[in-house]
Amino acid sequence: MMNQQTTLDAGWRRDFVVALRLRNVPAASIADHLKLVETHCAESGEPAQDAFGDPAAYAQSLAGSPADSVADLAPLLPSAVLGFLAGALTLEGIKGMLGDEDVTVRVGDLGGAVVLVGAALGVLVLLGRLKRPLLAVFVLVVAAVALAVVLDVADTAVLFACPAWLALAIGASSFAVLAVFGVRRARSERVSDPLSGESML
Questions:
Q1: What is the dihedral of CA 38, 41, 44, 50, to 10 degrees?
Q2: Sign of the C-alpha dihedral computed for residues 41, 42, 47 and 48 taken in this order
Q3: Which residue has the higher pLDDT, 28 or 194?
Q4: Structural element, H or E, at residue 36
Q5: Torsion sign, CA atoms 27, 30, 34, 36
Q6: Residues 35, 13: contact at Cβ < 8 Å?
């Protein structure tokens, strides 16, 4: 039997796992698929590229229709927007303290955050669905940034205003809480060998 690491190319493995993650495939299922590929390559001596073809295409065949990727990523939008706002509030708090100014958050700021985060998730969808997504990604990013800038400079209603130190405290603490939850989620979604429990990446 040949060594699994020599028959399963690291680049193919990485692209395969990334393609499955972009399609929101659960970590346990990714581990099962990866284990089957490793076992086949070890027993047959075939490279994964020859046995299973393009990793993204093979991942697509396992994950099903990419049309579901938008719905799969939609639940991430609220937490992603909150994380974006927490980071922005932290930076504005620092700037306000340096300039001795209050921090004002407007409706346009919230709208801009939603647009930018939505565009980021849209990029993930395009990367998972298209073989050559560069033009589509470029158009999406340019449009999102332009709209976010318009919302930022527009004279929209004020949501709230507070001292810079309070904005910094709220932003930093919110960002820390989101980071902790993010780390815990990442650990729970680690791709582990279904037999040994060890990390497969």
A1: 150
A2: positive
A3: 28
A4: helix 27-44
A5: positive
A6: no
In this structure, which amino acid lies at residue 201? L
Structure-token pair, residue 45: 């001596």
List the end-to-end C-alpha distance of the chain, in Å, as a whole number.
Answer: 22
In the block, tokens 């990442």 appear at 186
User: Which phi and psi (to 5°) does residue 50 adopt?
Assistant: -75, -40
CA distances from 91 to 111, 129, 145, 174 (A): 18, 35, 19, 13
Average pLDDT, the chain: 79
Band (195; pLDDT cuts 50, 70, 90): very low
| Mean pLDDT across 90-113 | 89
Q: Name 42's Cβ contacts closer than 8 Å, sequence gap at least 6.
A: 1, 2, 3, 4, 7, 8
Sequence length of the chain is: 201
Q: Give the Cα separation of 129 and 125 in Å (integer).
A: 6
